[in-house]
Each structure stands twice: as structure tokens, then as C-alpha cells.
Amino acid sequence: MSDAEREDLRRHGILLTSLEELYNWGRSNSIWPLQFGLACCAIEMIAAATARFDIARFGAEIFRPSPRQADLMIVSGTVTKKMAPLVVRLWNQMPEPKYCIAMGACAISGGPFKQGYNVLKGIDRFIPVDIYIPGCPPRPEALLHGLTQLQEKIKAERLAGPDTARHLRPENPGEFPIPDYGAHDLQPPNNPALFSPPSLPRKP
Ligand code: SF4
To answer: What's the confidence (pLDDT) of residue 204?
Structure first.
């Protein structure tokens, strides 16, 4: 049945759906973010939950203090190398299906501190990121836009078949190796399964 036919039926009070659509509709409209922030971007994330921006309109107002009860990690702020192992540990403690938003330049790439010896150049070196929100900092509206993009992504997930969602495929791990904060740097400096640094040819 085409979308036009379904829309025609809906106008006559008949709603046709599938278990997959119902399941994804419920999940996409009840996202529970993990309650933590890392730096200045977190202030904008907090603002998104205030009455002015009202993240509750999108069903994502229940910030959970425990990773066991959260399905969205918003990495909002600078990830220092000392903090990175703890962020990965929190991610591992979240149950599947789970999603990650990298909010702001720091979480995406290290931002203005990219050249700093103590700053991770992007959280996607250790955990998979679903949505990137650029800015320094992104405004609350940008976070809400990223949230709606994530909702669209969840609604498009398939429960079976060749396009089965990531969390339903057994070959995809839900947990990732936690790096050690060593004497000089993170060990390993990235998760090779997720990120490989570009090789820069040196001139002789
Ligand atoms: S991106 Fe800018 S506002 Fe956000 S944590 Fe980094 S320095 Fe702060």
C-alpha cells in the first residue's frame, strides 16, 4: 500500500501501521539522555531542558543519572584524555539500543583545544557517534534539531532483513575497549575498529 493510500485512509479515521513502525515510534519519542556534562556546551544542553526551549516537547526530558536507565549519551563539552576512559565506561554501561550525540566542536574534534596535549580530538575515536552538532557552543535549538534528526534515524531502523539496525546485529559490539590513561597518553590512542588516523606522507 502506498503512503498516499495510507494517508487517505487516515483521513477517514483508519490507521494502518506495523509492529516495526509502532516500536520505532515509541522509542523515538521517549529518548532518555544520560545526565552529565563535560564543559561549556553542557550549559546549552541544560538550557534545552528549560521552559524556554522545552526538550519535553520531543519526549526527551527525562535525563537519567544512571547509565543503566539511559539510551542517549550527549557528549557536551571538551573530552580530556583523563576523562575519556570514564566516558567510554559510561557508554559500555548503557543498555542497547543506545545512541550518541557529539555536541559541539570539542566533542567532535577537540574544538579550540585540538592542539592541547590533554584533549581528545573527537569522542568518535572510542565510541560510535550517531549525530554530530557543530558549534562552539551550539545553541539549544541546534541540540533540538540534532534530537529530531536522531528521531528520524530511529524511525528508519529496520528490525529484520538486510538493513537490520546496528544494535540487532550480533556482530556489532555494544561495548568498546576502555583506554588506559597512561603516563604520557591514552593507550591505545584510539579504537582501531572505529577510527584510523590518516597517514600523512612525509617529504624526504
Ligand atoms: S565547543 Fe566551545 S562551548 Fe563547547 S565545550 Fe568546547 S569550547 Fe566550550
So the answer is: 73
